[in-house]
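Troubleshooting: if your tokenizer reports a length mismatch, compare your output against this known-good record of 411 residues.
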Amino acid sequence: MEPTNPKVIRLAYLVSHPIQYQAPLLRRIAQEPDIDLTVFFGSDFSVRGYQDEGFGVDVKWDVPLLDGYKHEFLPALIDRKVSTVLRPLSRGVFSRLKGHKGEPGFDVLWVHGYASANSLAAMLAAKALGVPVLLRAESWLRDRKRSGLKLAAKDAFFAMLRQMVDGVMPIGTLNREYWQRYLGHDMPMSLMPYSVDNRYFQERSVAARPGRSALQAELGLDPTRPVILFASKLTGRKQCTDLVAAYAKLSPAPGVAPHPYLVIVGDGELRASLEKQAEETGFKSEIRFCGFKNQSELPKYFELATVFALPSRHEPWGLIVNEVMNAGKPCIVTDDVGCQPDLITDGVEGCVFPTGDVPALADALRRVLGSEGTAEEMGRNALARIARWSFEEDVQGLRSAIQKATGKFVA
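Known-good structure output:
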């Protein structure tokens, strides 16, 4: 076995499958000379292509998911192209953490999520080997209602989980509150913001500007009219139905079309009913359904937009908001979108309204679009705020968590 470099931290990261949002962050971490990162996946289904349950279409991401960092796919016991509590189920994590084929063992294990057999098995293996465990997840306290018995069982589970975890890395304000509730205020915490590749989305948005006229012509849009954009899965939780209903309320008089267009990017189980709803408003000619668009295509729609709206309920974060803010566009979100406390202040980077309140959503749209220059000013604020919520803060948060868990200083 080769001797380890005491100045280099060997970091193992376990996650269910390659995730398009995470790949650029992993590439960024791999650039750190004193963090030796290896990523362990339970499945490769997202690389091979799969049927996305939310979008309802076959998905194969058009951004590189595996380039730029060391990774391995753990041998599969069960792999059904889904990520659930028991899927995928893999083997071999103990031997890899201990040291494998002449390689030294790992100094730290970072796990994404705790509610899967793979995650729990990895944490148990790490504790048996004396390897500190860091945990990151999207959970928050605005959860669905549970019975007293289920809440008691959840408390018991977290009492057990606390014994296996040496530190957590909150993704934002609401996630921190969750960890404090279930793991205690004395659990070591280091903020590792839920971020996207800011540079990528900023550059792609700028590059899309010369093609804006062509996209407007393709969609049949009058360039002088503003555009309200929705871009997400067409599922019940995203509540695009509320946006269509609010859009109809922008009509200045019965039978008169709203001045803005509504552009809906995405696909899913509710597409047919949304198209019917759009027709029933009487303004279907002002609404565009563009279907699913892959990662690299989204910035041209961000650039097209005047304002973006995400009327979701129970949205643990909403990374699409990060992406749109990098295009310098204001965002309207519900108070049930997890990123809101960290990214959107009402009246500054956009607007915040109570989930399910269609008149309030219509009013928010009027606030952004009603006065000349308001959308542009909010968009500038959005771009400035998202610049402070980036991979650089993630790296610093990870370093802080490693130092707290190991006692070793990562400069």
